[in-house]
Design brief:
This protein has 69 residues and is mostly helical. Helices cover 80% and strands 0% of the residues. It has three helices and no strands. The radius of gyration is 14 Å and the shape is elongated.
Length: 69
């Protein structure tokens, strides 16, 4: 079973709920990066990248669901 088939098998409530959780998690990662004072440049890059990717996946998950349009 491919990832697309697994995603399509989810109900609309799970898609929107999961997308919202990912969106909040990404914002929290970016807030941690901003307010925690992470000193290492490499860790800042990793946290920033992971935060942005998480937010994008959350937004796409919400946008793909049919009832949120």
């Amino acid at each position: 079973m491919s990832m697309t088939e697994r995603f399509d098998a989810l109900g609309e409530k799970e898609k929107v709920g999961g997308g919202a959780v990912l969106l909040v998690a990404g914002v929290l990662i970016l807030a941690l990066l901003t307010f925690a004072g992470v000193g290492s440049r490499a860790l800042q890059i990793v946290l920033g990248t992971v935060g942005v990717i998480t937010v994008v996946i959350g937004v796409l998950s919400i946008g793909i669901s049919e009832k949120s349009v």
